[in-house]
User: Fold this.
Amino acid sequence: MPRLIGVDVSVLESLLIFLAGMAAGTINAVVGSGTLITFPVLLAFGYAPVVANVSNTVGLVPGTISGAIGYRAELTGQRERVLRLAGFSLLGGLAGAILLLTLPGSAFEAIVPALIGLALILVVFQPRLSRMVAARREVARPHGGAGLAAGVFGTGVYGGYFGAAQGVILLSVLGISLEDDLQRLNAIKNVLSALVNGVAAIVFIVFAEVEWLPVALIAAGSILGGQLGATVGRRLPPLVLRGLIVVVGLAAIAQLLF
Assistant:
């Protein structure tokens, strides 16, 4: 049953939500699929899907900012590029957040298992996507053109609505469109993801039902995780990260369907 507003959260639940936030912050900085960790944890503790999604998005904002700061060295010389794309991310995130709040909650519950499934496929095939990105890099434009703008906007809509594997999609869009080192593109991805989550969070805080204790726990954990991801997270075996994400994502699908 969905958790009622104001119900106390146990110490163990609080610890697990904090740890989930830390794992999500780490994964978001390195790859971008942290929602597939925190969202299922909130579902498991009885939060309704839309409330869990809203609270998760708000809670992960500090972590995405932390990850972007952790990659600040890779952002050197990319100010113009980031500014060109920031507006498309903001508009997309705003549109996605509005869609979440205007469409019926039943629509969200129906579509999210499919979105999680799509996210898991993207996570599993991320190495292949990276190879495809590298193959396309020779024909990439310096600033990406209209195709990149459209891709960033579309990813923003997706991220504002749900956001699982937003980073994987965004990194693929950037890599196909721009000629640069993947770590530098990952730095852009972290900034744009932070903008999408940030504008969506503002909409949710003003117009939606937010559970503030999970928000605070996820925020605290994701800030630490963002720094871990930007430092030691790059050295973690990718197979371990993807395996963890897939297991938790499948658990979320089962939770929603059954």
Residues 1-7 have pLDDT under 50 and may be disordered. Residues 11-257 form one domain. The first helix runs from residue 11 to 30.
